[in-house]
């Protein structure tokens, strides 16, 4: 087992990562002060069917626990499910000592974290990530839900007590979810670690290569990159915005597709290619990345989406300022920066990009 210590101004906490580290859950719960009156496990149907029993058996009789299982899919990160979780928590009389357990990928982590961050003005929660993508989402304390007007528009910063990342849970991920999570690993490598990028490029020839020790090593490196950034800028007043590399367009694509038909990371991958095409310094890297992503089976750009509707969504991005769309670009490996564009300028660049890819 490996332990990474996340340090932020508001909270320090461990990430336990490795095969079967789910067993750590019991110790983590026993060490909580005050001891929780009860636990609320929030999961989705897919993950619940696969891993709920394992988690429940680790908890055993030591703590009373309730479970709410919601449908899978990013469109479920919704007001309706937020309300359903809060109502369930109230009906089961969770109090301020109670603890929410987020068992699932980023969708569940964001929703359950937001439920915990706002129930009775904030109770504790533990992340049990089950996707590759969640090496990113489970760390750093961003929680929230989608609004029909935009992704992740409603939320709070709320750090977990611990992250328990049992990598044996990742073996059941379907290929498109492996691709989704791997896009965020590539993002971390591009914005902060050229050696990691080169090593992944060399060793990941097919999506099935994402397994075992090499996957675990890449996840640890990704988490460490994220930790280094959120340690310096927990609330995204500055450099944390670089973690949104690929996300401004990625979120717009997801929104236009109603959070269906494409995974989060696959949309982010397209967003990264667009961002790389915007700077002369990274055009070649963008072309090389596109070839690699195509080999790994990433989807091509959904050509039925129009540049103008995507730009309308990008204008509503949380980073947009004074009508300008802020794009995260790279000057090269590990050299991210924010670059403002007018919507007209970006729309014309996006139209050309869509034609060419
Ligand atoms: N908070 C953050 O900092 C942050 C960062 C990046 C992404 N996100 C958010 O994360 C979300 C995407 O997360 P995700 O990609 O993990 O999606 P997800 O949670 O929707 O999971 C993807 C799919 O895989 C299934 N699944 C999960 N674990 C599985 C397993 N072990 N075996 C088989 N199937 C499994 C789920 O049921 C779902 O169908 C988005 O909402 C995104 O906005 C948040």
Compact summary:
Helix content is 45%, strand content 19%. The protein has helices at residues 24-31, 45-59, 79-91, 106-118, 134-137, 175-192, 194-203, 212-232, 247-256, 264-277, 283-295, 307-315, 343-356; strands at 2-7, 12-18, 39-44, 65-70, 99-104, 124-129, 142-147, 150-157, 162-166, 325-330, 336-341.
The coarse overall form would be globular
* CATH topology category name of the largest domain: Dehydroquinate synthase-like, alpha domain
Helical content band:
40-55%
Could you tell me the strand content as a percent range? 15-25%
Oligomer: single chain
By DSSP (H or I, 4+ residues per run), the number of helices equals 13
Pfam family, one: DHQ_synthase
Subcellular location: Cytoplasm
Binding site for Zn(2+): 184, 247, 264
Organism: Fictibacillus halophilus
Tell me what you see in this structure.
The protein is of the alpha/beta class. The protein has a seven-stranded mixed sheet with strand order 1-2-9-6-5-3-4, with helices on both faces. Strands 7-8 form a two-stranded antiparallel ribbon. The protein has a two-stranded antiparallel sheet with strand order 10-11. It is built from 13 helices and eleven strands. The chain folds into two domains: 2-172, Rossmann fold (3-Layer(aba) Sandwich); 175-356, Up-down Bundle (Dehydroquinate synthase-like, alpha domain). A hairpin with a 4-residue loop joins β1 (2-7) and β2 (12-18). Nicotinamide-adenine-dinucleotide (NAD) binds at residues 44, 46-47, 50, 72, 74, 77, 104-108, 110, 130-131, 133-134, 136-137, 140, 142, 152, 169-170, 172-173, 177, 180, 263-264.
